[in-house]
Structure formats: structure tokens, C-alpha cells
């Protein structure tokens, strides 16, 4: 390859790959902060609940580099970091912001997610059980962020131009994710859907303490049913 071709590749790496490395490292820093906050919340909750009802189990499991599990009674909230850096479709509202127009590399974001599962799904190793996506936090290399999620998580934190991640936002996002998860009750499936069962399913049920059980049958953000349009970023 000639020098001109090498130089073009180098320019692409400088324009794209170096900013993405910055985003990844910054997302790691914030994910570490989320993990420490979650551990602190777990400790405070456990201390209080032991005085009220010791049957309410609160604990943190951290066995993976990119995930932390917060178990609160029947709910397990998983905070995880994606290892990749993302951009967005060209029609996304972010591209209309002057903040992004001034520096297109600001569009690159790392992603931290909160999912809610049933604790029994982990306890009884029901690997086909499904959880719900509670929130996605997108953070760029300048600490600016926005959130897609349920309830207040879907509209309180959608101004990437003016919002920078800090301890106050960390606490508020974790609190909202926990409260939403606890408020979302498991509902029994319709009787007609459970009226027939095979011997294999029965054996599976008795071995794993229940059928495949979902916190919800699939998941949708609130705007998919109510607002009809995605929240502005």
C-alpha cells in the first residue's frame, strides 16, 4: 500500500478509533461508579431490612467484569456495561443538536443498562426466563449523557447537551431503576395458555420450581404505547 493510502487509514483511526477509545475508558469509569453506588445502596437496605424482616434478602453479586447483580427479595436488578461504543441512526434527534453538530465525535457513546429479572430465575437456573430492560444510559467522552427508559427514566434525562454525569444523577438513576423493578409485579398467565402440559414440561417444572417465567412477556418502553414517539435525546 502506498503512503497516501496509509495516511488515509491513519486519519480515519484518528477521527474514529481514538475518540471511541476515550468513550470506552470513560464509560468504564462511570460503570465503576455505578457499581460502588449499588454496593452502598445494598448495604444501607440490608441494614434497615434486617431490623424489619430478616426474610427480605438483599445482596450484591459481582462475578463478571461488566455486570453487577443486586438481589432485593424476589427481584434481581442487573447493571451491566456493553463492551462496544455506539452511534445512532442518522434520523436520530441527537444529530439535530448544536452540541453534536459542533463536534460529531460527541455522538459516540458507551452504554450502561439496567435489567430486571426474577431472583428465582437465577436461583433455579431457569435460563430461558426473560427479564425487562428498565433503562439504557448512554455516556460520551465528555461525561454528557442521556437515558432511555421507563417512567421518569424516559423523560427526566434526555438532554445530552446540558447533562453531565455526577453523583446526584448516579443516585437518582439507581433509585428509579430499583423502584420501577419493585413496582412491576409478576402476573399469572391466562388460564387458557396453561391448560395443557406435556410430561417433559411437568418434569422440567418440578425440577426447576416453575415453568419458564417472565417478568413481562417481552418489553416495551412507555413511549411505544403512550407517547407514540420516542423521547427526544
Strand content: 15-25%
* Oligomer type: single chain
Number of helices: 5
Q: How are the strands ordered across the major sheet? A: 1-2-3-4-5-6
Mean pLDDT: 85
Coarse shape: globular
Helix content: 25-40%
State the low-pLDDT regions, or none: 217-233
Rg from Cα: 21 Å
**Structural class of the secondary elements?**
alpha+beta
What does this entry look like structurally?
The protein has 233 residues and is an alpha+beta fold. The chain has one domain (3-224). Helices cover 37% and strands 21% of the residues. It has 5 helices and 6 strands, in the order H-E-E-E-H-E-H-E-E-H-H. The protein has a 6-stranded antiparallel β-sheet with strand order 1-2-3-4-5-6. A hairpin with a 5-residue loop joins strand 5 (132-139) and strand 6 (145-149). Helix 1 (3-52) packs across helix 4 (167-183). It is globular, with a radius of gyration of 21 Å. The model is unreliable at 217-233 (pLDDT under 50).
Summarize the structure.
The chain has 233 residues and is of the alpha+beta class.
List the helices and strands and how they pair.
Layout: H1 3-52, E1 58-64, E2 67-72, E3 75-86, H2 98-102, E4 109-118, H3 119-123, E5 132-139, E6 145-149, H4 167-183, H5 199-207
Antiparallel strand pairs: 1-2, 2-3, 3-4, 4-5, 5-6
Looking at this protein, list some descriptive labels.
single chain, 233 residues, six-stranded antiparallel beta sheet, disordered C terminus, 5 helices
Amino acid at each position: 500500500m502506498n503512503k497516501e493510502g496509509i495516511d488515509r487509514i491513519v486519519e480515519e483511526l484518528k477521527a474514529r478509533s481514538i475518540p471511541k477509545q476515550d468513550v470506552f475508558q470513560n464509560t468504564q469509569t462511570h460503570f465503576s461508579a455505578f457499581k460502588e453506588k449499588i454496593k452502598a445502596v445494598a448495604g444501607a437496605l440490608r441494614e434497615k431490612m434486617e431490623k424489619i424482616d430478616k426474610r427480605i434478602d438483599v445482596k450484591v453479586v459481582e462475578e463478571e467484569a461488566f455486570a453487577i447483580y443486586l438481589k432485593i427479595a424476589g427481584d434481581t436488578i442487573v447493571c451491566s456495561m456493553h463492551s462496544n461504543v455506539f452511534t445512532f441512526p442518522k434520523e436520530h434527534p441527537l444529530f439535530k443538536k448544536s452540541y453534536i453538530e459542533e463536534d460529531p465525535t460527541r455522538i459516540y457513546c458507551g452504554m450502561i443498562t439496567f435489567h430486571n429479572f426474577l431472583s428465582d430465575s437465577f436461583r433455579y437456573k431457569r435460563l430461558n426466563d426473560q427479564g425487562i430492560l428498565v433503562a439504557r444510559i448512554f455516556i460520551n467522552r465528555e461525561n454528557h449523557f442521556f437515558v432511555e427508559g421507563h417512567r421518569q427514566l424516559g423523560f427526566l434525562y434526555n438532554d445530552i447537551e446540558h447533562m453531565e454525569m455526577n453523583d446526584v444523577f448516579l443516585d437518582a438513576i439507581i433509585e428509579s431503576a430499583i423502584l420501577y423493578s419493585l413496582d412491576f409485579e409478576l402476573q399469572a398467565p391466562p388460564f387458557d395458555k396453561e391448560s395443557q402440559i406435556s410430561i417433559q414440561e411437568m418434569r422440567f417444572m418440578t425440577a426447576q420450581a416453575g415453568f419458564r417465567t417472565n417478568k413481562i412477556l417481552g418489553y416495551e418502553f412507555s413511549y411505544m404505547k403512550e407517547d407514540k414517539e420516542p423521547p427526544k435525546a
